[in-house]
Amino acid sequence: MAANQTLAECRDLLYMGAIQASISKLTSLTKNSNSEIQTEAKILLVRAYLSQNKFTSANSECQSIGPSDLQAAATNLCLYMQSKYQTGKADMLPAIVADCRKVLSENEHSITNPTFVYLSSALLLHAGFSEDSMKLLALHPGNIECFALMIQAYLSINRSDMAEQLLSRSKKAFEDSVIYQLSEAWTNCCSSAGSKAEKAFYSFEELTMSCTSTSMNLLVSQAVAKMHIAQYPEADGILHEALDKDNSNGNVLANLAISSVLNEKDSYATYVSQLRDQNP
């Protein structure tokens, strides 16, 4: 029970962007005597490393995942992310997507496993196959991570109305979850109604205060919400607060570049140059 609780805490930290705190806890869980806990911890660890663009560490962790179907799905996701975000490897992407589909067809029994479905769906969504991704995710409406990825899929195709409907249907089951609260906040942020973006800001702010570790993601999320309600100076202030905490964070630098334009500052080129140097 304690290990399951720790696993849930690690998942929440990962979603809130407190990556290093999540990694520290997950590393100890990978040594747990329960093989199922070990596997789930290793997969979350892979995803944590991917979020930091630490592809070598992610691929290394994949090799120790026990079940072959999960190992194949996790490895394909690693390879896809590495090929997409490392210069000179984009030509490998179609082959990786094809292998993902092959793994799905050869492991039809595995679609009952929400972790396998999540990994495969995440790759397909990154590759632009949102419809295929959503068909898989729809198989697990009771899984919080499949729910969250479905919300992300709807937002990626500018269907915040569908995301709102899914949030409404899932509220009773998930509303106390940090992942649900983040999904709701991002849906509100992407809504055309300004009042909802303001509500999103307060949700991100509350989550920031409740997070036990510093999260650049939540600070950037607050800033993005402020931009959506045209409070550009406030957004810029939040982003500079984030920059003081981590001056090489790509997400912070990218949004500062946008903020500099919105605030009519002449620092756009500076931030873009830093972004290219530190996050090529």
From TrEMBL:
Protein's membrane topology: Peripheral membrane protein
GO function terms (MF aspect): structural molecule activity
A Pfam family: Coatomer_E
Broad class of where this protein is predominantly found: membrane
Keywords: Cytoplasm, Cytoplasmic vesicle, ER-Golgi transport, Golgi apparatus, Membrane, Protein transport, Transport
GO cellular component: COPI vesicle coat; Golgi membrane
Localization in the cell: Cytoplasmic vesicle, COPI-coated vesicle membrane; Golgi apparatus membrane
Gene Ontology process terms (BP): endoplasmic reticulum to Golgi vesicle-mediated transport; intra-Golgi vesicle-mediated transport; protein transport; retrograde vesicle-mediated transport, Golgi to endoplasmic reticulum
Family: Belongs to the COPE family.
Protein name per its UniProtKB record: Coatomer subunit epsilon
The species this protein was found in: Smittium culicis
